[in-house]
Amino acid sequence: MKMLHMVAFLLLIIGGLNWGLVGLFHLDLVMSLFGSVPIFVQLIYILVGLSAVYLLFTHQGDCRVCGMKGKGKK
User: The pTM is what?
Assistant: First the structure.
């Protein structure tokens, strides 16, 4: 499960950076790199979305900071 968490986190970072570039510079890096293979671009977007959903539901159990809730630590 740790590997799945790491892959999901990496994909979420890639997605966040891509959206930051889209917002700041109107540059879709995923499309720029893989636009010649539209199914690959779509697959990347789907994986980033699934990663966000996965981390949304599993984050508190995996996160060291969130896991300390109620244990008296900050």
Answer: 0.80
